[in-house]
């Protein structure tokens, strides 16, 4: 009897569970599936209370959606036997954006406290329907959902300055956001490379500032500057009518648009239009791409005309955008022009400011005062903390979370958008096989694993974290398809981070639900990343032994690897657990899924076993805190730096490397080498030369060789070079290595004249 029952359940289970998956992303707070479904057919009407404008708008949104996927025109308040009811009613426990969705074979009811909740109830329902126009029956599975968001700021940013995107793409972006219950669209309308919003009082902002000379064929930072006489034809802008239309479109989908009007830096576009706004007041050539050396990019903080201009601009912006928040940028201001400007220096004196940081703070505070006078709130990038935070400012923390933590501890609101993992301009897979990105890697899983409340904040401080946001900067993103690719599916992971309860996080479950969204993307012709198949090789030390683990984000897959430099296949060794590295080797690994080797190229990591392994390295000059690899002894850990900038390199900015190694006892040696990286794009250059010295007492050193660089400074391909000294075998206890950094970034480079970087790993001693 018992056995029979178990058998029956076993047969029934897969059937029931398949029929009852709603696959909703983000995962609702509570979802209970039931048997059966509601079919939207000719006997169905949409029921809404008449006289409520918001509900009428929601009804239009609902009926047009159904028409788009089925051709059916759903009557509103018709005499039909079955109803889908949209109901605004006071409901406890779900807040302003929450909703209840109850589906039985006879009715569907969406209940919420406001239109926002109704929209989200509809979005959950839409996710159970066909994604595109079909003749399939419109079946909604029976279920009971109670749902509300964890955070109130669920943001997506889009940079339309580096490349302009048509209103159609903006609407598509808004549609995608709304489908996944994101509610804040941060529209980055102003930057050096283009002013994108029509301002009636200052027509040149878009006549001049919205256009640049097309130099599409170059790496962003290295695009040549315009020459006199070249015409600026690449770009575009939004008229105020287009913006109003987009705002209304967004509002229907419960999306608030926060416009960003950058200041006081990143505004070469405004200065190209009105040169009197910068410190030199000199006209400049048309814009090109990322290279704006020798161009003015800041407003003059000493010129009252600048503040008049910005207040005029913001007045028009405020008249257009109903958003409570106005973003004023504030990031990455190079203060050099202010240091050289009489007006700026006079302002510093007159206002009793200490330095240029306080001048920036003065600038931002003055603008906040204006925004508050207009009943708006100011938000800015975390640099607005420097020189003193404006009294009521909200801080967008992008350079990690430190700025956000600091602001929350000062009782200021915060939006978390740290570069890792919230910058969606970084690679999400590969990077082999992916379109060129600005560098760095934010995979789907890293986004999914993100927790917006830092552990450093107590419960009271954590309340200042309004939510999180992903940013899509578009230096390398030129088309709508590419925009789709960069946010899909990472936005879905972020949606689950900011909407679903922390306790509901389930990476496997998310992946299972994701599959039906992938099918929908395919049907809609949306571009997206199918996943990261790279194998992550993580070296570590255990009882003095060097070991490596291997892992992949791909579900239901295996890893195969080789240690002899050959290409791994599914006949290679299968990874079962940590591998000991007991000799110099190149470890190569691939992900195998459904019997196929995935990805474009195997992942690989070189290891070297040599006499200095594990020995302490002391430095005469400090390495950058951003590039410390796995700690001070990275140069002797046996793990070689890879072509990726972030992997196992010690970085030095503007200073030589001077390293000293104590071998512990006198050893017989005949060869020393230092590996270095050149990555032109990221301002990393080979040293001019490397000098090797040995000593037996740590006091008097003998030079064994000085090896000059042979890689040209303008070599653009990422390159690793070993500087090698081979000499007659001799005894030594101490080794000193000096790598002479390039004096400055070379002429014609985007960092022309600025300090170069030196990246080193590893010092190999044999
Ligand atoms: C930024 O990425 N400069 C805010
Ligand atoms: Zn000035």
From TrEMBL:
Domain GH29D-like beta-sandwich intervals: 548-598
EC number: 3.2.1.52
Example of a GO cellular component annotation carried by this entry: membrane
Keyword Hydrolase attributed: yes
GO MF entry, a single one: beta-N-acetylhexosaminidase activity
Keywords: Glycosidase, Hydrolase, Signal
Record's signal peptide: 1-22
This protein's record includes keyword Lipid metabolism: no
Catalysed reaction, written as an equation: Hydrolysis of terminal non-reducing N-acetyl-D-hexosamine residues in N-acetyl-beta-D-hexosaminides
Residues at the catalytic site: 332
GO biological process, one term: glycosaminoglycan metabolic process
SUPFAM superfamilies registered for this protein in UniProt: (Trans)glycosidases, beta-N-acetylhexosaminidase-like domain, Galactose-binding domain-like
Domain called Beta-hexosaminidase bacterial type N-terminal: residue spans: 23-148
F5/8 type C domain sequence ranges: 625-740
Chain ranges of the Glycoside hydrolase family 20 catalytic domain: 151-501
Protein name per the record: beta-N-acetylhexosaminidase
Species this protein is from: Paraflavisolibacter caeni
